[in-house]
Design goal:
The protein is α/β, with parallel strands linked by helices. Helix content is 27%, strand content 28%. It is built from twelve helices and 27 strands. The strands form five sheets. It has a 17-stranded parallel beta sheet that branches. Strand 2, helix 7 and strand 3 form a beta-alpha-beta unit. The chain is elongated. The protein starts with 15 loop residues before the first helix and ends with a strand.
Length: 460
């Protein structure tokens, strides 16, 4: 006779804080499903300090229910929003504080009114929410639309993280921002103005992390008196003037289209910077002077800096250097003894060093040009040979769409010796386009590095 083993619900015996931790990794749909398992799980759901309503995901996962016949769809969606209202009412009665509230709303579906979203955000603020994320869709009935953020969002003594996407404020902004505990802001595709951003920075003295990308309406930005600020990311399409005074900034990303260097003389990167990424029409003089003032710099990235011609890197701690399409660049002087990873994308440049063969773990090259004649290929070989003699490179990675720049013509091969005679590992990574035949690639790689112990080909 078989013995039946009684199933034990061990999960329900876990302490509530562990159940909360488990639920924090689940979607709202999955959380609701667990709440019917037992009274313990139901209680855990009702007291969870995180609420994330990703309606975009809910609608996509239930297309039959929310994208069928219009009348049925609207009824189902309204029932869903009523369910959200009921969740809030239950939590308000229990006076449960809230750690995080997220609402992701695709306008392309039948949506609640703006006032309903305002009400949910109001409930979150009443619950002393510490992290608020609002991410509406782009279009409603094929028309661009942005959610109007209620001003109450900017008056909270509890909020620590504020993330706004595709939103706008009532402009011109008039009022005060009071966010004394705010540590991080993320604004992306948000309509602002100079007065608001000035009030925001003045009313958020504890800011540690600023991320502002693709916002419109800001002409001038002055960042100062934020002693805890350690990370800043700025990507502006129409900024005209920038002032930064960040003595404790460790991570700085500036992707700006400001011409005539209006911001260069008013930017103090401090001395604590470890990561610096710039995409802007900066000058050689400004960049090289700034680099000399950054003794702790470890990672430098330069993207689309159209006026750079000569870069001089002598920072003692720099270990990673990334240069991408700085079209006028002709000389890269590397005197950084700790450099280990060098990535270069663009036309041929001269890479120089006054130090004795710095050991580089990896050099990644994606060379491209509109004029790839025999003279160009000779210069390419000279670049590789110079890298080989000036640095001790453990691995080369060649990147290309088709592999064309790697196939050295026979005429050029007869003029010079193979450039990477002592390289042990050479990788080729192709990524799209009509690739050069494998036989030609293998021949080219074998000529470039005739004694390589490892030749690896990868198609991405």
């Amino acid at each position: 006779m078989e013995k039946r083993v009684k199933a034990e619900d061990y999960a329900s015996q876990l302490p509530q804080h562990l159940l909360h931790h488990i639920l924090s990794f689940l979607s709202i749909k999955q959380i609701i499903q667990t709440s019917v398992l037992s009274k313990t799980w139901y209680q855990a759901w009702n007291t969870l300090h995180i609420l994330e309503f990703d309606f975009d995901d809910i609608f996509k996962q239930n297309r039959a229910k929310y994208m069928a016949i219009e009348s049925t769809t609207n009824m189902n969606i309204q029932q869903l929003y009523s369910f959200v209202d009921q969740i809030w009412l239950t939590r308000r009665r229990q006076m449960i504080s809230l750690k995080k509230f997220t609402v992701i709303m695709p306008w392309s579906y039948q949506t609640p009114s703006m006032s309903a979203i305002d009400q949910w955000i109001g409930y979150a603020l009443e619950s002393h929410v510490k992290e608020l994320k609002v991410k509406p869709g782009d279009f409603l009935n094929n028309e661009p639309v942005k959610y109007m953020v209620p001003l109450s969002v900017f008056d909270s003594k509890w909020m620590q993280v504020l993330c706004l996407y595709r939103s706008k404020l009532k402009l011109p902004f008039s009022g005060n921002v009071k966010l004394p505990c705010l540590k991080k802001i993320t604004f992306e595709f948000v309509d602002l103005d100079d007065n608001f951003i000035r009030e925001l920075l003045a009313g958020s003295p504890m800011l540690e992390d600023i991320y502002i990308s693709a916002v419109s309406g800001i002409k001038e930005l002055h960042v100062s008196n934020l002693v805890k600020l350690g990370k800043i990311f700025l990507r502006f399409p129409d900024l005209e003037k920038l002032t930064i005074d960040g003595p404790n900034l460790e991570s700085i990303t500036l992707h700006l289209r400001i011409e005539k260097h209006k911001w260069c003389n008013s930017v103090n990167l401090g001395v604590s910077c470890k990561y610096l990424s710039i995409s802007s029409p900066i000058s050689d003089k400004w960049l090289n002077e700034q680099l000399k003032r950054l003794p702790h710099l470890e990672n430098l990235e330069l993207y689309f800096c159209p006026k750079l011609e000569r870069i001089e890197i002598s920072n003692p701690l720099v270990s990673k250097l990334f240069i991408n399409r700085c079209d006028k660049l002709s000389i890269v002087q590397i005197d950084a003894p700790c450099l280990r990873y060098f990535t270069y994308i663009g036309d041929i440049v001269s890479v120089l060093s006054s130090l004795n063969r710095i050991t580089l773990s990896e050099v990644s090259l994606h060379i491209n040009s509109k004029n790839m004649d025999i003279t160009w290929y000779v210069r390419l070989i000279e670049l590789l040979a110079n890298l080989n003699t000036s640095f001790n490179v453990l691995k080369y990675v060649f990147r290309s769409w088709t592999g064309k720049w790697i196939v050295i013509p026979e005429e050029a091969r007869k003029m010079v010796a193979p450039p990477l005679s002592y390289v042990k590992e050479l990788n080729l990574k192709l990524s799209g386009g009509e690739a050069v035949p494998m036989a030609q690639l293998e021949d080219a790689m074998s000529w470039i590095a005739p004694h390589a112990q490892s030749l690896i080909y990868t198609y991405q």
